[in-house]
Design brief:
By secondary structure, the chain is mostly helical. The protein is built from two helices and two strands. The longest helix is centred in the last third of the chain and has 51 residues.
Length: 98
């Protein structure tokens, strides 16, 4: 399994290296108010890929926090029901046969 993992990493590295070598032309990104940024195409691709990954991780993190909050609420509810159930069992007195 380790061999397959390292092989896939090497293949991905070679593909990304080829992308970087082929896309070294200068690119100008123009913003509002006359702002410009001139760099190579591979840097632009890397920046936008990283920004997309960060946005995806933040969305996943928010969803994870919501699920954790719901799980803790459900655990509290179960614990409360168990405590109430144990109290009601203790308060009941068994009926003695006569």
């Amino acid at each position: 399994m380790r061999f397959i993992n390292w092989f896939l990493r090497a293949a991905l590295f070679i593909l990304l290296l080829g992308l970087a070598v082929k896309n070294d032309q200068p690119v100008t990104l123009r913003y509002f108010f006359g702002l410009e940024w001139q760099t190579t195409m591979v840097i632009v691709l890397l920046v936008f890929f990283a920004a997309g990954a960060v946005v995806g991780l933040l969305a996943m993190f928010v969803n994870s926090l919501k699920l954790r909050r719901e799980i803790s609420k459900l655990k509290r509810s179960i614990r409360l029901k168990n405590e109430i159930g144990s109290l009601s069992e203790d308060q009941q007195t068994p009926i003695q046969p006569s």
